[in-house]
């Protein structure tokens, strides 16, 4: 009986591990798709849809610093063309999507992944420098 109980616990533990991994993969895929949609909206000069992909604080920061509406301000930023995804990392409710020409940071909201920073470039031993970011 103890042997069956032990085997059953092992099976449950393995199932939990596999479910956790697939959930992480799904979250990475969803974050990646959100970043690519944002990039596509920028390329298509659709500031309204691109702004809808921004986190609320990021949108507010952009509008305040540009003293203009989000769509106009976002398109004036001249963000780099991101290109294809190179790497995605998800840490809890946060994600980093590294594209060939850009790095984006995202946060998970009830409505899905939202862009918290874009136009980001790495700096040695310092935080990323981002063209658009929330407060």
Describe the structure in your own words.
With 135 residues, the chain is of the alpha+beta class. The chain has one domain (2-133): Nuclear Transport Factor 2, Chain: A. It is 49% helix and 30% strand. The protein is built from 4 helices and 5 strands; from the N terminus they run ααααβββββ. The protein has a 5-stranded antiparallel beta sheet. β3 and β4 form a beta hairpin. The radius of gyration is 19 Å and the shape is globular. Mean pLDDT is 86; it is low at 1-22.
Descriptive key words:
globular, 5-stranded antiparallel sheet, alpha+beta, 135 residues, Nuclear Transport Factor 2, Chain: A, 5 strands
Please describe the topology of this protein.
Layout: H1 2-43, H2 47-52, H3 56-66, H4 70-76, E1 85-91, E2 94-99, E3 103-109, E4 112-123, E5 126-133
Antiparallel strand pairs: 1-2, 2-3, 3-4, 4-5
> What's the count of strands?
5
- Largest β-sheet summary: 5 strands, antiparallel
**Can you tell me the CATH class?**
Alpha Beta
CATH topology group: Nuclear Transport Factor 2, Chain: A
Q: If you compute it from the alpha carbons, what radius of gyration comes out, rounded to the nearest whole angstrom? A: 19 Å
Estimate percent helicity.
Answer: 40-55%
Q: How far apart are the first and last residues' alpha carbons, in Å? A: 58 Å
How much of the sequence lies in strands comes to 25-35%
Ranges where pLDDT stays below 50 over 5 or more residues in a row are 1-22
- Which of globular, elongated, flat, extended, rod-shaped describes the shape? globular
User: Going across the major beta sheet, what is the strand order?
Assistant: 1-2-3-4-5
Q: Name the average pLDDT.
A: 86
Helix/strand order, N-terminal first: HHHHEEEEE
User: What is the total domain count?
Assistant: 1
Helix-and-strand structural type = alpha+beta
Gross CATH architecture: Roll
